[in-house]
Amino acid sequence: MNRNTRTIVKIFIIAAVTIACVALAYYLGANITGHKLAAASDNMSYTRWLEKYFELTRAAGLLNGLCALGWFTAARFLFTVDEAVGAGKRIFWLGLLAISAAITLGVAHFYAPILGIKLNGIIFALYGIIFTGVGYWLLTIFTTPLAFKYTPLGAQLIGRRGI
Amino acid sequence: MSYYFVSIGGTGAKVMESLTHLCIAGLLPENERLYITAIDPDVGNGNLERTSTALNNFDVFQNFSVGNDTKLFKNKISIVRPFPWNPTGHDKTLDDLTEYHQHSKTVGKLYEVLYTRQERSTTLNEGFRGHPSIGAAVLAKNFDDGSKWRTLTEQIEKTISEGDSVKIFLAGSVFGGTGAAGLPTVARMLRNNLADYANKISIGGVLILPYFSFTPEDVKDELFARSENFLPNTKAALRYYAERENLFDATYFVGDNVMTPVGEFSVGSSNQRNEAHVVELYAAMAAIDFFARPITAPKVFKYICRHEREKFSWNDFPISAATFVQFARFIFAYVQLIKPVLSDLVSGDAKAYKYPWFVDLLGGVNVTEPEAVNFNFYAEAFAAWLKQIETLNGREVFLINPSMFEANPARLLDKKLFATCDGTNSKVTLHEVWYRLTEPTKYDSTVKGFGKFLRRLYDACAAN
Asked: Closest residue of B to A87, CA-based?
């Protein structure tokens, strides 16, 4: 696989995983605790709650996907290594991880009241695990450009990667 | 086919230095082994010492498993010992070596007429001091004896007995002492000793014409070479080759119209440490040209011209620019991207995640073994040699952009010039090399260890 193909494939993977994360967070949230939260929300039917919850999940998921895409873009097109000490960029990756977590929890915390729905700890945990855990951390382990392929924490443990 | 290179004297040793670098860079034709030997009475000569260091470094690290389908390290080198062969022994004068006092009165008187008292009584530890007449007498006598020289001829005979042909190339100056005396003497000796294998042997030689000058200081009455004698010596030598005897199948003439002053005058020994010069590079390229010739090719006399008076560029060098530039990039990429962190990575002081090439290619490889350490020394030696070649007293020599790097210690001065270091646009930036190093590549099972890493780095430095 040449470098351009690899880049396109990775961008596609980031987009696909982001969509999958949104779908997973929506499905799990709706089925695990959706009915209870809909009942707890004022004047909210389950169907109406689902619409609002989907909107919330989509916003959190897409913003989180931008973090993963931002890391990929920076590592692929912006960072250059022309001396041995300039490699790594883990601080940048950790910064985006923190932003991912802040977005995931922040969107849930601030946007849900605007939408008029209530959330509980299960939703926050699901968002954290699915968006920040899978949609950023795990995704960047597998899609980071090769020049920085072991920068995401744990990437070396998962093994040597060729793509 | 096997290649033999015989360096004669200090200038020959410097040609050998250039040839060693070109050989390591993969510029010799085919994958043949290069046997190297040196003749120099001045065994402590600084030039020879520097060449020996580069050779010995390569001798140690040439067994890296880089595979057989690459130009990198493709020509192995064997040093034929004794290295160097000292035809005079220690603390010997011409009188001692010719056993002057044992000769009859008539021969003794003739000898006194041919050689001055100073020529006869000066110890020859620092060579023949620009007096080829001394060298001719000493070398002829020692070759007749032949005991120490036998290693080379035996090695050649062994090669031929295995069904191989042999190309022997001699390099030396015609304006000094050892080279001027040794070139025809050694060629004749080889022709005579190996006469039975005449159709299996080709002998070439580069006659190096004057290209440097010096001003002697504080040597008073000592016998030494004088640069004002270089041109008359050369004239006499060339007349000898033209009128008397030329035993070479290919004769190359390399010199310069400008006499480059050497930094500090020295009669010889370790103080004689002259910087590498483009003429020596040309002489090494002459050896490569000779090795590439068919063994049955007709006798030739070759010289070379350049396009511009004050400039040497790739238009003037008859070797593959792409191969040399790839090798130079490989060395400087190593110096810039790898060497500064390698020992820290091994000791654990540097974080391995930052260096995917270390995790992928050097995990479990002992990079403190002598071979890997010698490669570090070699990288320094190559940068120093290249810098000296390109520093030509105000004239421009452009192999690799001189503004890009510095030597001692080797480092890049301008990283942006890495991609265009040969004066052409290429996409091979340092980052590109870094990126390529991390990309997956399949090699056969013979490519392994530190050799695999070097091979990967070398391939990453290719222009395409």
From this structure: B354
